[in-house]
Amino acid sequence: MTETRTSDRTATLFDASALGGLRLPNRVVMAPMTRVRSDGRGLADASMAAYYAQRATAGLIVSEGIQPNRVGQSNPRTPGLHTDEQTESWRQVTSAVHANGGRIFAQIMHGGRISHPDTTGMQPVGPSAVAARGAEVFTPSGPQPAPVPRALSTEEAASEALSYAAAAERAVEAGFDGVELHGANGYLIGQFLASNANLRTDVYGGSVEGRIRFAVEAVTATAEAVGAERVGIRLSPGAGIWDAIDEDVPELYGALLAALAPLGLAYVHLEATADEPTLLALRRAWPGTLIMNPSDPQSPVPAGRKSAEHWLDLGADLISFGRAFIANPDLVERLRADLPLEEADRSFYYQGGDTGYITYPPFQY
């Protein structure tokens, strides 16, 4: 696909679709969602395997954010992919998903400045020594003000970009079908893109070309490490989450997509955090597969079938659902049959344990 895509009324959420080297049975993607069910060592466990296996009818699952190194951990009890023990622990998850006929990508998430020494034992790092204004980050003792990060040197920035590739190699070793780099929602890649978080004057800052450099290097290294057909990136243009403010969104993200286009990635995954004309311009700018997440992450209302079909008509190839998957492990079938959706109990989003995690049943006829 190299031209502007036009509406294809024959495409539905339930058609098969190609993605990289995979054949997806439908166009429904389970979006990444932090669920903090890991242990203090960042290991995946049997409950996590059950959780993802229950949702394996999705065309593609993208896992929760997984930190590529210790300093990249954002929240307590999130899983990692930087030790042999962590890598081995993920095999039960990928095996369970594959046994149920599913496909799963690992989302590689470096928190950057959205972290805390009480969580990692380390001062968070970022493009510049600028804290997220008005933000409270999660710590083992509860929310605390976002600390001032340590600004990465030029050499350290290049090394942190490579950390995504190292984690991706471990992900493939653990049985994941591919990886998604978390470039959205104000984490490290998004911090380099944001002009208020990135005050650098070296090659990683200043101009649009400088601000996209970290993202391009991280994606390029990952594609070289595991194959471009196994790599996607998630973006949230103009979202402003965690005080990462994008300026000149069309120019910034247009330049980023133009730089990534020659790599032949599996996909770009966009959140609906900009106005529709801006998102449509980015659809036209991206020659490859586009996953669209129609739900604004700051909206209390999750996306449904109507918004999904709207974006298929506008040229998206796949549609991701996040919160709707929490209480509806059989979401694909519920959407297909127009069955009612259960509402998740928000008090169990991040509480830990199996309740509100693997206890939601499929629809009872």
UniProtKB/TrEMBL annotation:
UniProt cross-references to Pfam families, sorted A to Z: Oxidored_FMN
Annotated region described as Disordered, given as residue ranges: 68-88
Domain spans labelled NADH:flavin oxidoreductase/NADH oxidase N-terminal: 13-341
Alphabetized SUPFAM superfamilies for the sequence: FMN-linked oxidoreductases (SSF51395)
UniProt signal peptide: none
InterPro entries in alphabetical order: Aldolase_TIM, OxRdtase_FMN_N, Oye-like
Highest taxon above the source species: Bacteria
UniProt-listed PANTHER family: NADH OXIDOREDUCTASE-RELATED, NADPH DEHYDROGENASE 2-RELATED
Protein's name in the database: Alkene reductase
